[in-house]
Specification:
Elements: H1 4-10, H2 12-24, H3 35-49, E1 52-56, E2 64-70, E3 75-81, E4 101-103, E5 106-108, H4 112-132, E6 139-145, H5 155-161, H6 163-166, E7 171-174, E8 186-188, E9 190-191, E10 193-202, E11 208-209, H7 219-227, H8 251-257, H9 264-271, H10 282-291, E12 294-302, E13 312-313, E14 316-325, H11 331-344, E15 351-354, E16 362-363, H12 369-382, E17 387-389, H13 398-401, E18 409-411, E19 427-429, H14 430-449
Parallel strand pairs: 3-6, 3-7, 7-18, 8-17
Antiparallel strand pairs: 1-2, 2-6, 4-5, 5-19, 9-16, 10-14, 10-15, 11-13, 12-14
Helix pairs in contact: 1-4, 2-4, 3-4, 4-14, 12-14
Length: 450
């Protein structure tokens, strides 16, 4: 019988052809493009593996592909998503986004890094295990959704309606991951929460000649004054009561963060800025990046913004804001505090529109079995210690599927710093893909016996 490594090598070209098949299928949730076709492909591949599969409809959304395989005292939950970002701007792609191409050891296609490579290599790793090592030593459950790139608006409802399918899992392998700039494998154990809103200010019943500005209030100024109360020049969030719901990092989290490689000068050069806010550097920058909440103006609009001048007094102004949240904060609490804060300063007229459901903070214990198994798997696969991140700076629906059910989670994957997820020329390195297959084998082995 072939060894695991021999089987993977013998099937190398087939595995890459399967990845080409997955990434040649558009599956853009934001545009409702190719979603059913992609769900069918994923379900067919799981069924080919021998998994018991179900396509679970989502009302007003895209279906969840659910699968189960194996048996044993432990259950590993695997979460991935089959939807991808829109490919635009198309003119910036070297090769067409839906025509996968391998160049210089890199695989280029929309969605290959986020998230179709990790989705597929996990299936291929289990195929390789079954072909060379026999029955799985644990049970594996897949939850593969089609709405992650649009904020997972229905994942919470899916979990509520299908709780018996996922509760009781001993750990979850989350959907993304990469090596860092130093080639260290990264293991990520949480995500910040997020709430995305709009603030609207209204004035006259129509745009006016700007000569009326001396007696008719300008909603753009009104909005600017309201925004100025949310944050000061020292980058401190000044919403009343906000700091009372911010949990500082614990000792384990700080210890893990202290091991995160961070070269301030390189990071500054990467972003093209002279210094970070308040001049933070090194470990202070790491703590601020991962453990502090944010309020970000994502877009502002009012009046005339075209070429030349137009002396207009606008009748409407709005701003798009996102709030990244840390433990003890929730989307609902942020909305409540923001409304009270604005009202207390006379901005009762400023309307708050919640444009997305928001996502709760997710943090997994750094000493959980799934994290320890992932660390051991990284050591065996890459020959070096993984860097454990207590959380990512970004957000996702991990809380809905994992933390609210008491399931610890960890992310690990086949990306690297120049994978360009969400951007033109998205790619992974082929060598990382096949190392990822080996990582899954080692994760199964270590998690089953821990």
């Amino acid at each position: 019988m072939a060894t695991f490594a021999e089987y993977v090598e013998a099937n190398r070209e087939r595995f890459l052809e399967e990845l080409k098949d997955f990434t040649s299928q558009p599956s853009v949730a934001a545009q409702a493009w190719g979603m059913q076709e992609m769900a069918d492909k994923v379900m067919a591949r799981l069924s080919k593996l021998g998994a018991k599969t179900r396509l679970i409809p989502v009302e007003d959304g895209f279906p969840v592909v659910y699968g189960e395989i194996g048996d044993g005292p432990k259950t590993l939950l695997i979460y991935d998503h089959y939807d991808v970002q829109p490919p635009e701007p198309l003119e910036l792609w070297t090769s067409p986004p839906w025509e996968p191409e391998i160049r210089d050891g890199k695989f280029y296609a929309r969605g290959v890094a986020d998230n179709k490579s990790d989705l597929l290599l996990r299936i291929q790793a289990i195929e390789s295990w079954l072909a060379t090592e026999g029955e799985l030593p644990l049970k594996i459950k897949w939850v593969l959704e089609g709405e992650e790139e649009i904020g997972s608006p229905n994942l919470g409802k899916f979990v509520a309606d299908n709780r018996e399918l996922v509760q009781g899992a001993d750990g979850c392998l989350w959907e993304f991951g990469a090596k860092d700039a130093h080639e260290n494998p990264m293991l990520i154990c949480g995500l910040k929460g997020i709430i995305y809103i709009e603030l609207h200010a209204h004035g006259a019943n129509r745009d006016l000649h700007s000569g009326a500005a001396s007696i008719v209030e300008n909603p753009a100024w009104r909005l600017v004054w309201a925004l100025a109360t949310l944050k000061n020049e020292r980058d401190e969030i000044t919403i009343d009561g906000y700091s009372e719901f911010v949990r500082p990092p614990n000792e384990l989290e700080l210890e893990a963060a202290s091991k995160i490689p961070f070269d301030t000068n390189l990071e500054l050069a990467k972003f093209g800025v002279k210094e970070f806010i308040n001049g933070v550097r090194d470990f202070e920058a790491i703590k601020k990046l991962y453990f502090t909440p944010t309020v970000t103006i994502c877009g502002l609009h009012s009046g005339y913004t075209g070429p030349g001048g137009k002396t207009v007094l606008p009748n409407h102004a709005f701003v798009k804001l996102d709030f990244r949240l840390v433990p003890e904060q929730t989307p609902e609490k942020v909305i409540e505090l923001l409304r009270k804060h604005l009202d207390a300063r006379g901005f009762t007229d400023i309307q708050i529109e919640r444009t997305e459901a928001g996502e709760h903070v997710a943090r997994s214990p750094l000493d959980s079995n799934i994290v320890q198994a992932a660390k051991a798997a990284a050591r065996a696969t890459y020959g070096r210690e993984a860097v454990v991140y207590p959380t990512a700076a970004g957000s996702g629906p991990m809380y809905e599927l994992c933390q609210q059910l008491g399931i610890p989670a960890v992310s690990a994957g086949a990306g690297y710093p120049d994978s360009r997820g969400h951007a033109p020329n998205e790619n992974i390195r082929v060598a990382d893909y096949f190392e990822g297959i080996t990582f899954i084998r080692e994760l199964i082995r270590n998690f089953a016996r821990n």
